Amino acid sequence: MSERLRELAAAFNGSFAAMTPLERLAAMAEHVPGPVVFTTSLGIEDQMITHLIFSNDLPITVKTLDTGRLFPETYALWRETEEKYGRRIRAMYPRGEALEELVNDQGIDGFYYAPEFRKNCCGVRKVEPLGRALAGAAGWITGLRRDQSANRADMDFVGFDGARGLVKANPIFDWSRDAIAHFTKANGVPVNALHAKNFLSIGCAPCTRALRPGEPERAGRWWWEEETKRECGLHVDDAGRPVRADNHRPAEGDAAFERLPQ
Ligand code: SF4
């Protein structure tokens, strides 16, 4: 099965460039021999994909990872999206016992104190639930874009995720943020209200800040960490190593930075 999926990923990777995002999603749904899951963070890229899946009734399950630390605006968008399309976005939650152990051990906001604490939190709240979200799937859709960071420029439209044993496809990989914003506006796709307040990449509330002028779009994520230690944890290379986010360290003086132990 793995070899078949690897070959399918290679074939898709060669053909995706000439296809529209909808055609790419439809091809995944039709040709991947098993369940296909789209994991959404409810960011603008993911909202475009959700729109294409729900509006065209594609047999792709849409799931989100509710870490318990999302912005109120994100929960409002989740509800608005379900109401608009009449479809459920399935929630994945952290394991209760693991979450209790994490918070009791390192504190409610332990992620600010050390990179390993942050990775522990992402591990319990995101990575482990993602594993369950993708269990049994043969295909995984994500909203990654090539121009989101230097690191992502090296990725492909479609790859074989050797660690999880599935075809991983990025159907809007070649789309710019501006083109996606135009699409969502033209098609009445609901988007997170925080995007209009300079939050371009939106994750958990305590770990996301608005961008300052001139910063790259993912600079507001885990901004207190050294650049070399920021790892998303959800996206891994073929050997299972986390793909590093490529952000810029902000200037000291940021309000949230100041409250950290120095
Ligand atoms: S982004 Fe922050 S709050 Fe969310 S899981 Fe990671 S460390 Fe925890």
UniProtKB/TrEMBL annotation:
A GO MF term: adenylyl-sulfate reductase (thioredoxin) activity
UniProt domain Phosphoadenosine phosphosulphate reductase: residue ranges: 36-210
UniProt enzyme class: oxidoreductase
What's the domain of life for this entry?
Answer: Bacteria
What reaction is this protein's catalytic activity? Answer: [thioredoxin]-disulfide + sulfite + AMP + 2 H(+) = adenosine 5'-phosphosulfate + [thioredoxin]-dithiol
Quote the biased-composition stretches of kind Basic and acidic residues, using this chain's numbering.
Answer: 238-252
The main location class comes to cytoplasm
Question: What GO terms in the biological process aspect are recorded for it?
Answer: hydrogen sulfide biosynthetic process; sulfate assimilation, phosphoadenylyl sulfate reduction by phosphoadenylyl-sulfate reductase (thioredoxin)
Q: Where in the cell is it found?
A: Cytoplasm
User: Which EC number applies?
Assistant: 1.8.4.10
**Family designation:** Belongs to the PAPS reductase family. CysH subfamily.
Please describe what this protein does: Catalyzes the formation of sulfite from adenosine 5'-phosphosulfate (APS) using thioredoxin as an electron donor.
Q: Which NCBIfam families match?
A: PRK02090.1
Q: What is this protein called?
A: Adenosine 5'-phosphosulfate reductase
- Tell me what gene encodes this: cysH
